[in-house]
Amino acid sequence: MTILYFIDIVGTMVFAISGALAGRDKKLDFFGIAAVGLITAIGGGTMRDILLGSTPVGWMKDLIYLAMIGSGILISLLFGKAVLKLRRTFFMFDTVGIAVFTVLGLQKALTIGVHPVIAIMMGMVSAVFGGVIRDIVCNEIPLIFRKEIYALTCLCGGILYVVLQRMGLEQGWNILTTVLFIASFRILAVKFKWQLPDIS
Amino acid sequence: MTILYFIDIVGTMVFAISGALAGRDKKLDFFGIAAVGLITAIGGGTMRDILLGSTPVGWMKDLIYLAMIGSGILISLLFGKAVLKLRRTFFMFDTVGIAVFTVLGLQKALTIGVHPVIAIMMGMVSAVFGGVIRDIVCNEIPLIFRKEIYALTCLCGGILYVVLQRMGLEQGWNILTTVLFIASFRILAVKFKWQLPDIS
Amino acid sequence: MTILYFIDIVGTMVFAISGALAGRDKKLDFFGIAAVGLITAIGGGTMRDILLGSTPVGWMKDLIYLAMIGSGILISLLFGKAVLKLRRTFFMFDTVGIAVFTVLGLQKALTIGVHPVIAIMMGMVSAVFGGVIRDIVCNEIPLIFRKEIYALTCLCGGILYVVLQRMGLEQGWNILTTVLFIASFRILAVKFKWQLPDIS
Fold it and tell me: Which residue does chain C place closest to A29, by CA atoms?
């Protein structure tokens, strides 16, 4: 699981950078930028842990998360504009991060013993809730992709994971398949501008 | 308690419908509508359970709640305008639902062992918090009634329940009395446009 | 610890008054004013307890907190304008209250067994989160001081406490030193209008 852990902490840093950059865009002061970066990075996992009752919440148990978030905020402050030029690289990390967050969140929920349907929802919450809070706090509409596809992708990935698990696929292969599925789906969705139909 | 359980799950669906319709009014996309419906339906009970530390939160333990919420969202999407014509019917379900949510929330808090004063507050939170979040998310002012009367009604109903319990009233009769009290009070408040005095 | 407990409950009342007055300024009705007063007073401790998993959250276990909050709201409603003339007195209570909230929050987190770095964050959250929610709910910018200095002060105070504890300082003296440090730092920051540099 070392590779999952690695992606998890790098993904956390990428989330912190995306939050801190959003705070910069809003011309917040230092404390505001750090707060938005922190909230974006920990929001999803924190919400999942609070709902499941897994407390103290996850990031409190391993200081590496705070260290990565602090680094992410520092990077955004020091190299703000340069980081934006790496948007494509970040998009890849962000995408793989989301996929990994979904799988890890789902696994945590299953461990606690909730029904798989709830676990799938908790996987999605882990992946998307940080970004939702970031957008609420910064009052902005996500630019590069529509959020519902983003959330739906995590939902479908979670369903795939549970189905494959039921079919007896070995956990390592299941994680790999699910992460690849979520990441590719999201890349395709952004590339071809997939959208859900407008119903209202 | 079968009748309470029945009102509880139907009330949950009615809350989901009210949330989903509010999301439609705001011209949200499919995911937004579903999210507002879900939040409205589970918001109150989730807040109560988190504050009391009763986790995993209630709706995770019985999938019937998610099923009813899903149905409510579907109904809102398929029959949106037709549902609005049934507003009076929904108002009745909503009113009885609020009364039942108050009593069930209060009972749950008492079971956990908090002081009755806290339990009365948790009953109110169970009943009104979902609607509060819905209004915050949708940025709208409730139309048919003023919220403070709504919350005050649940507070008075909770006090009545605790007093009657102390006086030795049998639980079944106590629930019936309290639910009728809250529901009638609310209907009268809406009908005669009762308002709290403006102090500020 | 009687003096700490006394400052804690008086500080809670001062927070409730500051919230209720903010609600009055926004011309909220009675229920709104009471809600903002309550949220401001309990917001920080509630967030800390939820994140740490110390539930039912703190103010549910000792009714004196609700009683003080109720008194604070009543005072704001009855003597609204007169209270404003005592702003200097309140500022002192508020400042000492924040310092005490920081230390008590930090101690509670340490008791639960999280890493000191996390405990320092939880001390800050205890002290500042109520005010943050009040400002979000009331949509206003704090007047007399910039928030980041406020939060940074609590952070530095928390670090001081942990360092002195490690150096073997007796707990009573440590609390006294930390509270005096936080309170003086805040008074100086407001008096001389200290600000963090603007980075964005």
Answer: C198
With 70 as the cut, is the pLDDT of residue A195 above it?
A: no
Q: How far apart are CA B16 and CA A123, in angstroms?
A: 22
Q: CA distances (Å), C145 to each of A106, C59, C134, C187, C196, in order?
A: 43, 28, 15, 10, 12
**pLDDT over 70 percentage in chain C:** 91
Judge whether B72 lies within some domain. yes
C139-162: string of b/e by CB count within 10 Å (b at 16+)? eeeeeebbbbbbbbbbbbbbbbbb
Locate tokens 């009040």: which residue? C134
Torsion of CA C50, C56, C57, C58, to 10 degrees: -150
Looking at beta carbons, which residues of chain A come within 8 Å of B60?
A: 51-52, 114-115, 118
Enumerate residues 25 to 64 of chain B having a beta carbon within 8 A of any beta carbon in chain A. Answer: 27-33, 46, 50, 53, 55-57, 60-61, 63
Residue in chain B closest to A133 (alpha carbons) equals B137
Strand, helix or coil for residue B55: coil
Record: contact C112-A56, CB cut-off 8 A: yes
Q: Within 10 A of B1 (CB to CB), how many other CB atoms are there?
A: 11
- B159 and chain A in contact, CB less than 8 A: no
Structural domain includes residue C196: no
The distance of A47 to chain C (nearest Cα, Å) reads 9
- CB of A73 closer than 8 Å to CB of A37: yes
Q: What is the pLDDT of residues B20-76, one digit of tens each?
A: 888 888 777 788 888 889 999 999 999 999 999 998 998 999 999 999 999 999 998
Asked if pLDDT for residue B19 goes beyond 80, the answer is yes
> Can you give the pLDDT at residue C195?
64
User: Considering all CA atoms of chain C, what is the largest pairwise distance in Å, rounded to the nearest integer?
Assistant: 51
| Total domains in the fold of chain B | 1
Q: What is the pLDDT of residues B154-182, one digit of tens each?
A: 999 999 999 999 999 988 899 999 999 99
A120: domain range?
Answer: 2-191
Any domain includes A115: yes
Within-domain flag for A41: yes
Enumerate the residues of chain C whose CB falls inside 8 A of the CB of residue A30.
148, 196-199
Classify burial at C36, counting beta carbons within 10 Å of its beta carbon; exposed 0-12, middle 13-18, buried 19 or more: buried
CA distance C19 to chain A (A): 21
Q: Which of A11-20, B119-128, B186-195, C74-83 has the lowest mean pLDDT?
A: B186-195
pLDDT at C147: 58
Residue B199 has pLDDT above 70, yes or no: no
Q: What's the DSSP call for residue A200? A: -
Q: Which residue has the higher pLDDT, B77 or C89?
A: B77
